[in-house]
Predict the structure.
Amino acid sequence: MTEIRLPFIGPDVEGCRLIQWIVSQGEEIEIDQDLAKLQLDDEVFYLPSPLDGVILDFCVVEGEWITVGEPIAYIEVE
């Protein structure tokens, strides 16, 4: 099991809001596949997967604020 954490977004950025999960628990994912829709101020962007694997569990719920470096999901790496 591997943690996916919110990566560095930019200078002076401490975190962002999770707007929507695009994937589901149990779903197979590929590198660079969009995992979640995030929002920082008025900007909406997508978080790509850093690995291939299967989504095991989510650590945050939609609407929640996430800080940089915080675990957001667990995947089983293939």
